[in-house]
Amino acid sequence: MQRLTKIALLLFTSVFAVENVVARSIGGEDVACATLRLRYPSFTFLPGSAGYTYETTTPYWSATVYSTPKCVFVPQNAQHVSFAITTFTLTLSKFAVRGGGHMPIPGYNGINDSGVLLSSSNLTTLSLAKDKSTVSVGPGNRWRDVYAYLKPSGLAAVGGRVGHVGVPGLLLGGGISFYSSQYGFASDNVVKYQCVLATGLIIEATATNAYSDLFWALRGGGNSFCIVTRFDLKTIASSNVWVGIAQFDQSQAAGYLDGVYNFGKYGAPADPKAAIIPTILAFPSANLTIYVAAKFYDSLEDSPSAFKNFTAPKLAPVVDSYSLQSISDYVASTDPLQPLGLRQEFRTLSSVVDREAVQLTHDIFIAGVASKLSSVANLQASITFQPVTKDFLLHSSKTGGNPQGVDVSKAPFFWMVENWTWTDPNDDARVRAAADSITAEINSALAANTFGAKYLYMNDAGPGQPVFQSYPTENLQRLKAIRTKYDPLKVYTNLLPGGWKVANA
Ligand SMILES: Cc1cc2nc3c(=O)[nH]c(=O)nc-3n(C[C@H](O)[C@H](O)[C@H](O)COP(=O)(O)OP(=O)(O)OC[C@H]3O[C@@H](n4cnc5c(N)ncnc54)[C@H](O)[C@@H]3O)c2cc1C
Ligand SMILES: *[C@@H]1O[C@H](CO)[C@@H](O)[C@H](O)[C@H]1NC(C)=O
Ligand SMILES: *[C@@H]1O[C@H](CO)[C@@H](O)[C@H](O)[C@H]1NC(C)=O
Ligand SMILES: *[C@@H]1O[C@H](CO)[C@@H](O)[C@H](O)[C@H]1NC(C)=O
Ligand SMILES: *[C@@H]1O[C@H](CO)[C@@H](O)[C@H](O)[C@H]1NC(C)=O
Ligand SMILES: *[C@@H]1O[C@H](CO)[C@@H](O)[C@H](O)[C@H]1NC(C)=O
Predict the structure, then answer these.
(1) Cα of 212 to ligand 6 centre, how many Å?
(2) In DSSP terms, which residues pair with 290 in a beta bridge?
(3) Which Pfam families does its entry note (predicted)?
(4) Which ligand is nearest to the CA of 114?
(5) Among the bound ligands, the one closest to the CA of 69
């Protein structure tokens, strides 16, 4: 009876108020924090406490997204998450959800004192199935934790290429892995999601159970559907791999860009075990550009040909750390290359694989950064050409498909990510304006030469980029229908305002 009353109250207050939440004047977030603190005092942190300070800064990649929530709740299990969601809904409190904290968009993984921060820090389950075919991963883990856990079994998972990136955000947007030519998006390798619906119900979604529609939506639909409390991932046999980073200097630019194009066009499609992350780093105040390529080969035997366009005699690196090691050791040793606590911004672009497209993208990017940002202190800018093969996309469609629905017929592609890194908050507006104008200039040059491609990868996108609009229209319609079915009151759209929202696309 008590439960019925509670549910009735929940429905009543929600129906009449969720849509009008902006107009309210009393602070539901105060009531939510008081409720959480009463029930779970040791997991609810108020401003001024060490736990609060830690949770609102340390786990984040970019200092631009530190936030000042009314309180921070650190659930220890799915039941605690369910209690929190019910509390937020009853009190009409806004909230934010943070996994690894790597999305550098203000308000997407944090919230100011109009709401509560729900932290994944303690949802750190890691457990290998008896038959070792799957691993259960809590959303508080980073990819380095997953690789380190699987290493003693000679296994890996299709996941991130940088160790401190969070598991949940990467998987909810898709996930580009060193293993993607062989196994598709990281999210194509999730076999089960445990998650908390807007009603507070804890459910499990698989490709074949009653929640198969939700399962499909979670493969690339972001945080509009439920709060994921566990991902069950397929494991892959991969003990040691050939991996490391080669660096080239400015005088080798032309040969490097030839190598990038040829790898995207021929090298990657010919051998799905091979991957590269080609990144061009510009330091405009020093008039310096360096050319870097992380090379990866998923085998104990190195390939004689996969990287011949990036090795002597074709293109001799200045330094090269390519060697046989576990993915776990590689991500541990490269983590310091991506320090936390700087100011960061991304933009994403995509193109077909064409030599001239690579050149014009590179030239506009380097010139734009030099002309607009040379005087920004400590500015570093980079552009990365991520090669995406037909095999990558075919694997995705063979495993039940995903909302991204990338058009295989036009593959291969480059999915590019531009990054800007700086230190002074007074430069934020200037860097963001430059990011927008450089991106617009590259996009119009690509379009004018019919090099453009449609898809925009959520996890590399900047604020306002039309991510869901780049998915096939029918997939977006299906996402919207699934969202409406599981969360008709828009809890995960209006009370959880941060993130890419299908309802608003
Ligand atoms: C240095 C670096 C390296 C990267 N490398 C790669 C790479 O190799 N491959 C790749 O594909 N991407 C990569 N990315 C991009 C990365 O996938 C995204 O930044 C991603 O959002 C990070 O996930 P997170 O959990 O750390 O993010 P968060 O910022 O914590 O979360 C991202 C979004 O997911 C939501 N969310 C988080 N947890 C949950 C949950 N449990 N349930 C529901 N919603 C949730 C949040 O509300 C937020 O909107 C990289 C990013 C960086 C900064
Ligand atoms: C806090 O968030 C609300 C809602 O998003 C917004 O209107 C307000 O400007 C924010 N305040 C600050 C100080 O950032
Ligand atoms: C939970 O997370 C906090 C940080 O918020 C950390 O200090 C603590 O050690 C974690 N506890 C467990 C049991 O993992
Ligand atoms: C290397 O580049 C040549 C063109 O110079 C191309 O034919 C070849 O396929 C490329 N190989 C790889 C592995 O990228
Ligand atoms: C910047 O470097 C390029 C290539 O090394 C050189 O041609 C150019 O003159 C340099 N510009 C300045 C202003 O130093
Ligand atoms: C740029 O951002 C992307 C995130 O999507 C990440 O994979 C990459 O490591 C970043 N590169 C640099 C040089 O910061």
Answers:
(1) 32
(2) 281
(3) FAD_binding_4
(4) 2
(5) 2
Tokens describing residue 354: 């064409």
Question: How far is the centre of ligand 1, averaged over its atoms, from the C-alpha of 457 (Å)?
Answer: 12
Nearest Cα to Cα of residue 53 among 66, 36, 41, 62: 66
> Where does 116-228 have alpha helices with state H?
143-150, 167-173, 180-183, 212-218
pLDDT at res. 399: 83
387 Cα: distance to centroid of ligand 5 (angstroms) = 30
Q: What is the pLDDT of residue 400?
A: 80
Q: What number of helices (H) and strands (E) belong to the chain? A: 15, 18
**Residue 294, H or E segment:** strand 288-297
Query: Is any ligand 6 atom within 6 A of the Cβ of residue 103?
Result: no
**429-481 confidence digits (pLDDT tens):** 999 999 999 999 999 999 999 999 999 999 999 999 999 999 999 999 999 99
The residues that bridge with 422 in the sheet, in sequence order, are 343
Report the pLDDT value the prediction gives residue 348, as an integer from 0 to 100: 98
Which residues, 6+ apart, have CB-to-CB distance to 363 below 8 Å?
none
The rounded radius of gyration (Å) of the Cα atoms in the chain is 23
Q: In the chain, which residues have pLDDT < 70?
A: 1-26
Contact (CB, 8 A) for 491 and 89 = yes
- Rounded to whole angstroms, the Cα distance separating 230 from 308 reads 41
Pocket-testing residue among 112, 495, 496, ligand 2, by greatest number of atoms within 8 A of Cβ: 112
Which residues are bridge partners to 274 per DSSP?
Answer: 297
- In this prediction, residue 14 carries a pLDDT of 46
Q: Tell me, what's the pLDDT at 359?
A: 98
pLDDT of residue 101: 98
